[in-house]
Design a protein that fits this description.
Blueprint (H helix, E strand, L loop, with lengths): L11 E5 L6 H8 L8 E5 L1 H6 L1 H10 L4 E4 L5 H13 L4 E6 L1 H14 L2 E6 L11 E5 L5 E5 L5 E5 H5 L3 H12 L1 H14 L6 H15 L9 H21 L8 H12 L7 H15 L5 H9 L13 H11 L17 H12 L3
Parallel strand pairs: 1-8, 2-3, 2-4, 4-5, 5-8
Antiparallel strand pairs: 6-7
The protein binds zinc ion.
């Protein structure tokens, strides 16, 4: 399952200032053959309110494309959109928004075989270019579904600079998590017949390195936004090439999944949860987390679990649940005996920010 030989790459990755105001020019530069085809813009009601001017402009650039406000980030909604796309002979889906919109639009494009143009309003995780969509299936239960990656990715640096800081921090967390994810991937390859895809490994490593070793410490700067957007896209492509999420997801992600599934009331973004998970994961792996802790501190990324309402008992339980939340995924947790005392120590160390 981890190995396959076919993969796609996006035709366009444009990271430009005010890119959303000239998306038609960008598309005609990269994929001129689709210009003039019928398009639909997918977003959410509140985003359509906030970014009215930009979204209207994009709709206008694509032949006054219908602006569709999706109702939920669900499988059913993706199917509804895909049905509309197929029956109205729409050829291009433009997703404008955060993870919810982008995952739904990506899956709708996958089902309807439409060209998918991804236009993120924030850089909160690496799903923008990944071959997966996380969607609600039955009720609120969410599932990760395989799908096609976007044909084009357009990042408007101005848009990202003005997005809430927490979202960019979340994207930073998801990128830094690759450090422990790659360790776990190697470990799992040693333990099973699965092969490491060297190219996917290198790409994910470079994604991590470009942000971790970035000289630009101001996350609102254009330089940093450019580096982060490329890093997130590279992470997505590493998953596409590997044919699995392993290059970007290890024990730190299992911790985040345990929160999502067992503690839905904890309000924490995906990237923050994996950032918090990365520190204990580093410790379990026998790596010194100091560099990572210092890095998070430099950008003001808060890894104190108590500030998200996570108590010591909850923290310990989350790590217990992380062991079983994705059965069959080999990580350092398989080699780490459950040790409540150690988890208490790690928790307190994180709360005291030592
Ligand atoms: Zn992630």
């Amino acid at each position: 399952m981890d190995q396959h030989t076919r993969f796609d790459l996006p035709i366009c990755l444009a990271v430009e200032e005010d890119a959303f105001f000239h998306s038609d020019e960008i598309i005609s530069r990269y994929i001129p053959e689709i210009i003039g085809q019928k398009a639909i813009v997918i977003s959410e009601e509140f985003l359509i309110g906030i970014y009215k001017e930009k979204i209207d402009d994009i709709s206008h650039d694509f032949g006054d494309a219908e602006i569709y406000a999706m109702k939920s980030a669900s499988f059913d909604e993706a199917v509804t959109i895909a049905k509309k796309v197929c029956t109205e002979e729409i050829k291009i889906i433009i997703g404008i928004g955060g993870g919810r919109v982008l995952d739904t639009a990506k899956y709708a494009a996958h089902i309807s075989k439409a060209v998918y143009i991804c236009m993120p309003t924030s850089l909160s995780n690496d799903s923008l270019a990944s071959p997966f969509s996380v969607l609600e299936t039955y009720g609120k239960a969410r599932m990760t579904l395989s799908c096609k990656i976007p044909t084009a990715i357009i990042v408007d640096t101005n848009m990202i600079i003005n997005a809430p800081e927490g979202q960019t921090l979340s994207g930073i967390g998801d990128t830094i998590a690759k450090h422990t994810a790659l360790f776990d991937w190697k470990l799992s390859a040693k333990r099973s017949s699965a092969r490491i895809d060297d190219f996917a490994y290198a790409l994910s490593r470079m994604s991590y390195d470009s942000v971790y070793h970035c000289d630009e410490k101001n996350m609102k700067s254009r330089v940093f936004i450019r580096i982060l957007s490329r890093a997130l896209v590279m992470g997505g492509l590493a998953m596409e090439i590997a044919g699995s999420s392993r290059p970007c997801s290890g024990s730190e992600h299992l911790f985040a999944h345990a929160i999502e599934e067992y503690y839905p009331d904890i309000k924490i973004s995906h990237g923050m949860a994996v950032a918090i998970g990365s520190i204990p994961a580093c410790i379990f792996q026998g790596q010194d987390p100091k560099g990572m802790i210092d890095f998070f501190r430099t950008y003001g990324l808060n890894t104190d679990p108590s500030s998200y309402g996570i108590t010591e008992d909850m923290f310990a339980d989350m790590w217990k649940k992380a062991r079983t939340v994705r059965k069959g995924r080999i990580t350092i947790l398989d080699d780490t005996p459950y040790d409540r005392v150690q988890l208490g120590e790690i928790y307190n160390r994180m709360v005291e920010k030592i």
